[in-house]
Amino acid sequence: MNMRRIVFRLIDGVIVPRLLYMELIQDVPGPAAYLAVGDAIDHGHPLVRETADRLRATTTGPYDYARTAFEFVRDTIPHSHDADDPRVTWRASDVLAQRTGICYAKSHALTALLRAEGIPAGLCYQRLADEDGGNPVIHGLIAVLLPGESRWARQDPRGNKPGVDAQFSTDGERLAWPVRPGAGETDYPTLYAAPPPSVLESLQRATDRSQLWRLLPTAL
After folding, report:
1. Within a domain: residue 16?
2. Domain presence at residue 197
3. Domain count of the fold of the chain
4. How far is the C-alpha of 47 from the C-alpha of 35, rounded, in Å?
5. Which one-letter DSSP state was computed for residue 30?
6. 35-72: b or e for each residue (b if 16 or more CB lie within 10 Å)?
7. pLDDT band of 14, cuts 50, 70, 90
8. Residue 51 forms part of a structural domain
9. What pLDDT sits at residue 62?
10. CATH number for the domain including 108?
């Protein structure tokens, strides 16, 4: 059973719930699968390795590196919808080379950069919807297991914009979109070592972003 720990805080006179963390369920036991190289998370690629080396040179340890890698992907690789970029990427190395991608692709890039430095990382997902609960879509993010920690911490590198302020945090989640169960939204508890088939196939089949929108999964 997954566990969600929530606290309530007073913000501008309003009591607001905040998810401290979610207990994730690995789809593969142990840490090895969350360090592995794959087709989408290709941290054996020279560009991923070079990028990881460059970022590591500016940091002082695993936590600092993880935060720096998160901010690099969040801030320097525009979300293709925000930038109105028609290109579709899915391999981490292509995301870094072309500097574009949707949430799934950016999650692949961040996961690859973390694994490149020996930090276990995996993929996780939310089901989001419009205000009225219509037009559901699956949103991708990641979770990281830092040295000395006993639980995975979710991070959302999709990129900030007005109304979205995702930050790297291990002591309380600061995601782009907290889910609204009343609108049919949900946090999926599974932590994937590799992209689920429906996610990866949508990226691989799409020839441009407009087609990708029609192929995105609506549930996992």
Report:
1. no
2. yes
3. 1
4. 17
5. S
6. beebebbbbebebbbebbeebbeeeeebbebbbbbbeb
7. low
8. yes
9. 97
10. 3.10.620.30
